[in-house]
Amino acid sequence: MINAFLKTAIHAAESSGQILADYFEKLHDFRQKNPNLRDVVSEVDILSEKNIKEKIKSEFPEHTIIGEELGQEKHDSEYCWFIDPLDGTVNYSQGIPLCAVSVGLEKNHEMIVGVVFNPLTEELFFASKDNGAYLNGKKIHVSEKKTVEEGLYVAAFSATASANKQKEYEIFGKMNDTTRGTLRIGSAALSMAYLACGRIDGFWVKNPCSWDVAGGIALVQEADGKVSSIKGEQFTLQDKILVASNDLNHATLLDQLKEL
Hints:
- By secondary structure, the protein is α+β, with helices and mostly antiparallel strands.
- Helices cover 33% and strands 28% of the residues.
- The protein contains 7 helices and 15 strands.
- It has helices at residues 4-23, 43-59, 89-93, 165-178, 188-196, 210-222, 250-256; strands at 30-32, 40-42, 64-67, 71-73, 79-87, 100-107, 110-118, 123-128, 133-135, 138-140, 152-156, 181-183, 202-206, 226-228, 241-245.
- The protein has an 8-stranded mixed beta sheet, sandwiched between helices.
- Strand 11 (152-156), helix 4 and strand 12 (181-183) form a beta-alpha-beta unit.
- Helix 1 (4-23) packs antiparallel against helix 2 and helix 5 (188-196) runs parallel beside helix 6 (210-222).
- The protein is globular, with a radius of gyration of 17 Å.
């Protein structure tokens, strides 16, 4: 169940999770990375990412690593790690425990390992290809709701302003009014982990960053969920829209989101 890649990913996520837990509600030095008011970074993001990279490089020095804060370490390898050292930084900065460390490993453009760890709730989600998905060692599975109307969803809006942003709000409102609810929780990684264990029934995000969703993709797929582009095709990290669901309602969900 736990191979060498997954073992490294879990160790990296848990050790960085301890850094997040140690600094929680004690750190107040956050700064904006760009004009987007919600895109902030702190000392703990940097410490967490450095730790994860060190753990991966000690075991697999020839692998490529792409991190949110410290950029890319490129190697001629079929393996590529995607690191989000603190997904949900705004929540974390406000003392809200909806945040996570996310680590994903891709081999030849296929996600084969995913780990999402929230140290503040002590929830460790992990998966590896063909071995299933787990929460704290217990196997998990997506929900079995067959209609969109029965479901609870999470959406993530695109980070930058655009002419089509109003359409995102309209779709969010319509989905909220015609289902059991649509939420925003501030962490794509946690959203996909929650989908994998059946807490929610679908998730979508426009213009996702690779490090935000890589780990979650492996979780959802190994929990028998579906991850696709807005066209229903296999999702790649270059696609502009990610849609994930329990697979039973995926086609209908895509139809509801087609104008994104």
